[in-house]
Design goal:
With 257 residues, the protein is α/β, with parallel strands linked by helices. It has helices at 8-11, 22-35, 50-55, 67-91, 101-104, 117-125, 149-160, 193-198, 212-222, 238-243; strands spanning 2-6, 39-43, 96-98, 105-108, 111-115, 129-133, 135-139, 143-147, 164-169, 190-191, 227-232, 251-253. It has an eight-stranded mixed sheet with strand order 3-6-2-1-9-11-12-10, sandwiched between helices. The mean pLDDT is 94. Bound molecules: 3-methylbut-3-enyl trihydrogen diphosphate (IPE). 3-methylbut-3-enyl trihydrogen diphosphate is lined by residues 7-8, 44-46, 49-50, 53, 74, 78, 134-136, 146, 148-150, 207-209. Residues 7-8, 44-46, 49-50, 53, 74, 78, 134-136, 146, 148-150, 207-209 line the site of 3-methylbut-3-enyl trihydrogen diphosphate.
Length: 257
């Protein structure tokens, strides 16, 4: 089984509220189908989640009444996005089932506590692709919080030990600096603990689910159980190549044990 995350920056325009990249999503679904691989799919929230979540500091948990309608709005918006993903997968000929974290997961102080992984296993067994996503979730200590796609990826990788785990980003992989704004940014082909320790402070900008540091920590954990790659989902053919275990431009994550 191969575990895939479609980052919110790939399937949406992260700067514009609820802006879907329909063509990209359709192409990625076709690439998954064409690979013939058995997969579990996780997708990010992009502009369907981060904008309202950040405005209302939902990642800090419940602390004021005005967050309640905001949490509900984000749950609605990420479900709309999820439905778009599900539609594209069905159109590509990939039977799939949606597993929303707001219904099947619980956080504890921001960390993923419970996730019903048996549901994923049962759908896989039936030849149905389980699909989950970054969502608002109940939190046993904070009322609610944000469950990120990366937290879900880590738990699913621990449980299922996929042969490969692929993160689809909007850039070629992990860089030494932000490739959108820094022309000196260099692609890091192999990421390990040393990479994490050496990343410059300028890279520490964060959205509601954390900085690149948090992301690399998740990836290093995942690399304990699985070959782990970060590739560019905006470049046609790369996801299919990675799914077929072909050489592909990107960053490979290595855990030094
Ligand atoms: C974010 O999930 C969830 C919400 C903001 C509701 P992710 O952290 O996985 O989303 P992306 O990939 O960064 O957009």
């Amino acid at each position: 089984m191969i575990l895939i995350k479609l980052g919110g920056s790939v399937i949406t325009d992260k700067t514009k509220y609820k802006t879907l990249r329909t063509e990209v999503l359709g192409r990625l679904a076709s690439e998954i189908k064409a690979s013939g691989q058995k997969v579990i799919l996780v997708h990010g929230a992009g502009s369907y989640g981060h904008i309202i979540a950040a405005e209302n500091e939902l990642q800090k948990g419940f602390f004021k009444e005005s967050q309640v309608p905001a949490a509900s709005q984000v749950m609605e918006d990420v479900r709309v996005l999820n439905l778009e993903v599900i539609k594209c997968l069905n159109e590509a000929g990939l039977p799939c089932a949606s597993l929303p974290p707001s219904a099947i997961a619980k956080l504890q102080a921001g960390e993923l506590k419970d996730l019903d992984c048996q549901l994923f296993a049962d759908y896989l067994e039936l030849g149905i692709v389980p699909v989950t996503f970054g969502d608002v979730c109940l939190d046993t200590e904070r009322g609610f919080g944000i469950c990120s796609g990366d937290q879900l990826m880590t738990r699913i990788a621990e449980t299922f030990k996929p042969t490969t785990t692929i993160f689809c980003s909007d850039v070629d992989g992990v860089y030494t600096a932000d490739p959108h704004s820094d022309t000196d940014a260099r692609l890091i082909e192999t990421i390990d603990q040393k990479t994490l320790d050496e990343l410059p402070r300028s890279q520490r900008c964060a959205d509601v689910t954390g900085s690149i540091f948090k992301k690399i920590e998740h990836m290093l954990n995942i690399a304990t159980y699985s070959k782990a790659l970060v590739i560019n989902g905006l470049v046609p053919g790369r996801l299919k190549a990675a799914l077929c275990d072909e050489e592909v431009v990107g960053s490979k994550v290595e855990r030094i044990l």
